[in-house]
Amino acid sequence: MKYDYLIVGAGFFGAVFAREATAKGKKCLVVDRRNHIGGNCYTETVEGIHVHKYGAHIFHTSDKAVWNYINQFTEFNNFINTPVANYKGEIYNLPFNMNTFSRLWGISTPAEAKAIIESQRGAVTDPKNLEEQAISLVGKDIYEKLVKGYTEKQWGRSCSELPSFIIRRLPVRFTYNNNYFSDRYQGIPEGGYTAVFERLLEGIEVRLNCDYLKDRESLRAMADRVIYTGPIDEYFGYCYGPLQFRSLRFETEILDTDNYQGSAVVNYTDRETPFTRIIEHKHFEFGAQPKTVITREYPADWSLGDEPYYTVNDEKNNALYARYAEKAAEEQGVYFGGRLGEYKYYDMDKVIASALDLCGKLL
Ligand code: FAD
Asked: Could you tell me if 133 and 236 lie in one domain?
């Protein structure tokens, strides 16, 4: 055997595992079928701006061990995610907080905001669909201006036809605090995400444009063990049928202006605007470049072959995943991890923690 570990996928799960295994003296080969490292966190430099190619990525965590770990490979800037919503030209702060309520109703105290929300929530005790659920959580005004259109675009269906469990809670904050996350640590890697992966994978052999499943036998024969972070159903030839995803379509444009929207993230919450968000990448790093790059994000149905973005963890798909996971447990010397290997929505900090956990078990 030439390698101790063959690692399929150069995203956070694969790269962290490869780094730690290498530090323990193991010989690793990392393969990725894309033409770049970084998985979905990859950033590409355009006009001097780090463009988040697979959707905006903001690092946030309350896990001090993960924060200390990742800080070995990058410094983070002090970016705080404070997105705004644009509803037919009206601008509201997110997440729903006193700034939002003040703009909506012209009020100034938490007691006034609470009273208005309470009066609009209605008496629904057993919500039958997402619409009833959302109104019972935040009242009619917030639902109609800030939840309804956005959610309908995301799911491609009307809120009155969507199941209530999709939204279990809608955080409402009665302070003037626009920080979207409530985690202890937050920021964007200085120099973009790709540089973090270059450091994680420094000195480790990486083969790009290399699809493990297309050359499985010869690649498998090269290593004692395999860490597989691709789609679990694809690994098994979709023998039980494909797991479902939601997809996204991105439209990226370079604009000849230094500041297009004054915020990294603007959500378009009306039903008529076809995209859900515009990302202006330079604002993640307080960029002063003369031009700007924006990306419009369109939710999209997913079919086999499309880029899988969001897992659909409903009962049916979770049951299907459980069958694949059973099969995976029988694969000798192959370990499945990451968002595709475990069919799970993982934030970056959680995927790093999960990779470190596997390192603890195997290394
Ligand atoms: P990936 O990054 O997907 O890496 C898997 C890699 O495996 C890919 O590069 C793929 O090409 C490769 N691969 C698959 N199959 C094969 C094969 N057969 N052969 C070779 N290579 C293969 N998290 C946050 O913490 N903050 C955010 O703001 C945030 N925003 C997000 C926005 C969007 C739109 C999405 C979808 C996710 C977001 N995330 C965010 C989550 C974040 O993207 C994930 O936590 C992270 O990418 C998971 O890393 P991973 O290594 O599991 O998977």
From this structure: no
Domain presence at residue 69: yes
Residue 13 CB–ligand 1 contact under 6 Å = yes
Q: Is the CB of 230 under 6 A from ligand 1?
A: yes
Q: For residue range 297-331, what is the model confidence (pLDDT) as tens digits?
A: 999 999 998 999 999 988 999 999 999 999 999 99
- 74 and 103 part of one domain: no
Residue with tokens 């010869």: 218
Spatial CA neighbour of 146 closest among 109, 99, 104: 104
Q: Output the CA 133–ligand 1 centroid distance in Å.
A: 31
Find out whether the beta carbon of 32 lies less than 6 Å from any atom of ligand 1: yes
Mean pLDDT, the chain, as a whole number? Answer: 96
Higher pLDDT, 214 or 126: 214
Confidence (pLDDT) at 124: 78
Atom 10, ligand 1: residue with shortest CA distance: 9
Do 163 and 257 lie in one domain? The reply is no
Give 343 Cα–ligand 1 centroid separation in angstroms: 11
CB 150 within 8 A of CB 267: yes
Within a domain: residue 173?
no
* CA 229 / ligand 1 centre spacing (Å): 9
Contact by Cβ (8 Å): 29, 6: yes
Q: What is the DSSP string of 170-232?
A: -----SS---S---SEEE-BTT-HHHHHHHHTTTSEEESS--GGGSHHHHHTTEEEEEE-S-H
Ligand 1 atom 27 nearest Cα: 57
- Total domain count, the chain: 3
Q: Using a pLDDT cut of 90, give the percent of the chain over it.
A: 94
Same domain assignment for residues 103 and 65: no
Tell which atom from ligand 1 comes closest to the C-alpha of 9: 7
The pLDDT of residue 168 is: 83
| Claim to verify: residue 99 and residue 163 sit in the same structural domain | yes
Is 0.85 surpassed by the pTM of this model? yes
Mean pLDDT of 124-145: 93
Residue numbers of the domain that contains 255: 245-300
**Average pLDDT estimate for 349-359:** 98
Distance 342 CA to ligand 1 centre (A): 12
For residue 167, what pLDDT is reported?
A: 86
Residues 6+ away with beta carbon under 8 Å from 71: none
Task: List the end-to-end C-alpha distance of the chain, in Å, as a whole number.
Answer: 18
